[in-house]
Amino acid sequence: MLTEFSSLPQRRYAVIYADPPWDYKGQLQHAGPGSGDSGGAARHFPTVTSRDLAQLPVQEIAAEDSLLFLWATSPHLDQAIELGKAWGFAWATVAFVWDKQRVNPGHYTLSQCELCLVFKRGRIPQPRGRRDVRQLLSAPRGRHSEKPEEVRNRIAAMFPDQPKIELFARSQTPGWDSWGEEVPHGEARTFWSRKETVAAQ
User: Fold this and answer.
1) CB 94 within 8 A of CB 117
2) Angular region, 82: left φ>0, alpha ψ -120 to 50, beta rest
């Protein structure tokens, strides 16, 4: 299978914020005691393999000096770092740690946090905004895979004047361009789809 994506905007961005639909190979997830089966990501939206995500030409919309803020679930941490590099960025650090205020079962320790990584291309975009934004954020979970709006707000406070885009977005946000399957555009649009491929003989 191969994922086909719709075209990205014809614009360069200094800030790119992405929450990829990581593929768990059909594995189901549980939200904790008493919550039942959350169904796994594949039951909520189309997931995409790391290999196919790497084919999305994010480098073509990245400004010469730009940052990529990339959400990574813990099982996909190594893949997320490789994805940031595949998109033309250099690994920098962990930008945000989200305490979800509720634990999930895990194979080793109880899972409670999710990471938003940051990658850099060129230099940190200028001019800078706030320089006192905290890394740790404690906020309750919303619907499946939804990230706290506060993270986007903190990024905007750090870089208020730069052109910004959210990839794999679920809504439109003032001051940001949005690209994603769930973003309302007035008409149905498909941003990625799966198709059968035949290996060369």
Assistant:
1) yes
2) alpha
Pairing of β 2-5 and β 62-72: unpaired
What CATH number should be reported for the domain holding residue 73? 3.40.50.150
**pLDDT tens profile 97-146:** 999 999 988 889 999 999 999 999 999 999 999 999 999 999 998 776 68
CB 159 within 8 A of CB 73: no
Domain that residue 61 falls in: 2-7+14-27+37-195
Query: Which has the closest alpha carbon to 158: 85, 86, 67?
Result: 67
Q: In the chain, at which residue ranges do the beta strands (DSSP E only) sit?
A: 2-5, 13-18, 62-72, 90-104, 111-121, 136-138, 164-167, 177-179, 192-195
> How many Cβ atoms are within 10 Å of 119's Cβ, its own excluded?
24
pTM value is 0.83
Give Cβ neighbours of residue 22 (< 8 Å, ≥ 6 apart). Answer: 41, 47, 48, 50, 73, 76, 79
Domain annotation covers residue 176: yes
d(CA 51, CA 39): 23
Residues 6+ apart with CB under 8 A from 142: 148
Q: Which residues contact 34 (CB under 8 A, 6 or more apart)?
A: none
Closest by alpha carbon to 39, among 17, 24, 53, 20?
24
8 Å CB contact between 113 and 97: yes
Which residue in the block uniquely carries the two structure tokens 């033309």?
88
